[in-house]
Specification:
Mean pLDDT: 96
Largest sheet: 10 strands, mixed
Number of helices: 12
Number of domains: 2
Distance between the termini: 18 Å
Length: about 600
């Protein structure tokens, strides 16, 4: 089944229909580029693209802030796209009456300066100056919106947090709210490969290393040369000088291990923690009248769906919306096993266009009549709408039991299931984690039946009728560990009547971070909250069962009648996560029944 939006009643006006009603009326003008000076003297390269190239009219502006090269110089005679990271925004918005401004972030592309961190606070201050410059231009109508995927999406939050009055609407797409927990340390565990691959990507781009760039499909075309010089830089000497400054940029593998706990600070700057490069840290500076539309997918990395939901739940803005689809990071792929085609059919940017038309261009799009939440129910293969998240408060709890059972009631007598962690176990190379590192992935978890078979499991009886869930499944595991620390992975699967096991979602928690606490005001969560603070970390006591209660990543999924529900447990994912504890695979014991019943809570949804 496709992810089409015109089947069902989730929208009054589906995104595809709205986009069809808004054909492009303007040609894409030639980009004009220049250097813009920051208060500290650093010069940033930017492109301005106007509808029809017309400077005599005033246009609302869509701002794109990227570290991934705003535009490349290309081999003469080549027809390769010079802006692989941003052309989709250009081709969507400029023909429909928006000015587009694309900026190379400080220390990247043709911009001068160095990057002192991932999503540096210094970048955030740059955004205020950029907004001032835009509103001073004769072609600007004084209204600014921002959008973009991943890094570009979180930059939207940073822009809004400057409090600039011209910023009217932002659409952060597939973007973090808490960089530490949503991206690099989900459950308190480092995604080791992500830091390394991201570093290789940034070396390729920031240092103009074309040999390294070849391994990243988005930037691999040999016709792409170095960063495009701005118009005044006729011989490219300024762009080359900028690239030389980038040699001093931070290195991600070295940088990210400085923050082993969420509250760890740089040893040379006690004020700089992971909050410093996370949007949630600047919540109070985002004006309440800014419209916000966040979009993510059910297999969007390690926690981007969490970020989308938390942004919606935390912000007080009257106009805020979210959409969660059957997508990976950036909606490159429809991840559903029942998809009709690999490429998504719902036009994500068409929905963003409608949002900007409403809040930047002043059009009456009918958006106010739509529900603020839209999400895709996997296996049901249908879109749903809702006013609140989670969309229902109903729950179904299943308890682990003797012989690997998962049942509606706990056994009276306590039982134990003990297994030795296999540090060689991995989830493979076509998972939710590849795309966030810029690695091509198209066939998600196709070998899951085989991989899951190696794990200890708890499985329900066949369902008498379909069961649809929407939200965060929560596991409560009473656990014994032979070591003072452990990585605990829990996978939720649907086992179909023919025995095929379908990956649904997963969750992970480092055992030393098992302590729960109330969610802070700047990151509201409808699921168990863990501070991941160094002061709250506690080793597992020998011979003493401990409760690990944590959420799996959110999903919306319909289990079919006749299918069984299964959770599988692992102590490692060698393909993605750091080994915990080093060289000491623990023996783990799951307790069931008695006064320490382990369980799975499923958030039950009612189809609408």
């Amino acid at each position: 089944m496709p992810d089409r939006d015109d089947q069902g009643l989730a929208w009054k006006v589906p995104p595809s229909r709205y986009l069809a009603s808004r054909p492009g009326e303007h040609r894409v003008g030639e980009p004009r580029s220049l250097y813009l000076g920051m208060p500290d003297g650093c010069r940033l390269a930017l492109d301005v693209i106007l509808p029809d190239g017309d400077t005599s009219r005033r246009w609302p502006t869509v701002l794109i802030l990227t570290p991934y090269v705003r535009r490349f110089a290309v081999t003469p005679g080549s027809n390769v796209e010079p802006s692989p990271n941003t052309f989709r925004y250009r081709d969507m918005f400029v023909p429909r009456g928006y000015a587009l401004v694309v900026v190379d972030a400080r220390g990247t592309g043709a911009s001068f300066g160095t990057r002192d961190s991932f999503r540096s606070p210094r970048e955030r201050e740059d955004y205020r100056t950029i907004a001032d410059w835009i509103t001073a231009q004769p072609w600007s109508d004084g209204c600014i919106g921002a959008t973009g995927i991943s890094y570009l999406g979180a930059a939207c939050d940073f822009l809004a947090s400057t409090g600039h009055k011209a910023v009217k609407a932002i659409a952060p797409l597939f973007a973090v709210w808490d960089t530490w927990a949503d991206n690099y340390y989900p459950g308190g565990l480092l995604i080791k490969r992500l830091a390394q691959v991201y570093d290789e990507l940034m070396l390729a781009l920031d240092h103009d290393r074309r040999d390294l760039r070849a391994q990243f499909s988005y930037f691999a075309d040999p016709a792409l040369q170095g960063p495009m010089p701005v118009d005044e830089d006729k011989d490219g000497s300024l762009a080359r000088a900028a690239v030389r400054e980038h040699l001093a940029n931070f290195r991600m593998p070295d940088f990210m291990v400085e923050f082993k706990c969420r509250d760890d600070a740089l040893p040379y700057d006690p004020s700089f923690t992971s909050a410093s490069f996370s949007p949630y840290n600047y919540l109070e500076h985002i004006r309440d009248d800014v419209a916000v539309y966040a979009i993510s997918g059910w297999l969007d990395g390690a926690g981007y769906a969490n970020a989308t939901i938390a942004r919606f739940s935390t912000l007080k803005n009257a106009e805020r919306r979210i959409m969660l689809g059957p997508w990976d990071h950036g909606a490159r792929v429809n991840v559903s096993p029942w998809r009709a085609r690999v490429e998504p059919e719902l036009p994500v940017l068409g929905e963003v266009l409608r949002f900007f038309d409403q809040h930047l261009a002043g059009r009456d799009t009918g958006l106010a009549a739509e529900e603020p939440i839209h999400y895709f129910a996997m296996h049901a293969e249908e879109w749903r709408s809702a006013r609140t998240w989670p969309p229902t408060r109903e729950e179904c709890t299943l308890f682990t039991g003797t012989g690997g059972t998962l049942a509606a009631s706990a056994t009276g007598e306590p039982t134990k299931n003990t297994f030795q962690v296999d540090f060689a176990f991995g989830t493979g190379g076509q998972t939710r984690y590849e795309r966030i590192a810029g690695i091509e992935a198209k066939s998600y978890y196709e070998d899951w039946s085989k991989r899951e078979a190696a794990l200890p499991q708890f499985t329900s009886e066949p369902l008498a009728e379909p069961l649809e869930i929407a939200g965060h499944p929560v596991v409560s595991l009473w656990l014994l560990s032979s070591e003072p620390d452990a990585a605990v992975f829990v996978y939720l699967s649907e086992v179909e009547a023919d025995g095929t096991s379908r990956y649904v979602t997963e969750g992970v928690l480092r055992a030393i971070h098992r302590a729960e606490s109330p969610a802070p005001a700047n990151y509201r969560a409808a699921w168990p909250w863990h501070s991941y603070a160094r002061k709250d970390a506690r080793p597992m006591p020998a011979g003493e069962p401990q409760l690990l209660r944590f959420a799996l990543l959110p999903t919306a999924w319909r289990f079919s009648a006749g299918s069984r529900i299964r959770i599988s447990i692992a102590g490692a994912d060698a393909d993605h996560f750091a080994q915990t504890p080093h060289g000491r695979p623990p023996k783990l014991t799951v307790l069931s029944g008695g006064d320490r019943p382990s369980s799975l809570m499923l958030p039950v949804a009612v189809a609408t």
